[in-house]
Amino acid sequence: MNLPDRGEFFSTLSSIIRTLKPIPFNCLAVSVFGFVVLSGRFPNNDFKVKTGNLLYKGNRVFTQNYSINSFVGKSSDTIQNNWEGHAWIELEERIIIDLSLFDTVRSPRFILPIKDDLIENYAGGRGFFILDKLNPDTCFEYQMIDILKDEIIDAVNNGILAQESNLLND
To answer: How far apart are CA 13 and CA 107, in angstroms?
Structure first.
């Protein structure tokens, strides 16, 4: 497996986080934005945007109720307003990169009973969560339902570009 240089990779992830406004429950746009940046910066690596369920210590945090790929041909607003679940990036089918979890967990709108435990153990500040499937943190279970189709990625990315001032820091 060909992984990017660790320092350069983490620097790029930090740059992505600094570029994005901390908007809770925005995992789809954040993951697509991160995917576009990472794919451009590390073209020799295989990145995918995946969606599905997220469990923490066996408790559902996010539940995807249907395939997001069914939205091919719809506007990005339709995709974001009608979809439930969680999105993340995967590198080389091994490394899970979750750029949005901490912004969501720290939001007053996140009201699950596991909130305090998540913040205390993982989400003390703004950042990203990395999970290596070869050495996983057993508290987290990412259950993939979809690998996003290019058409969905393009639609969400076009929505990000159209709403740049609302999603990206200056």
So the answer is: 21
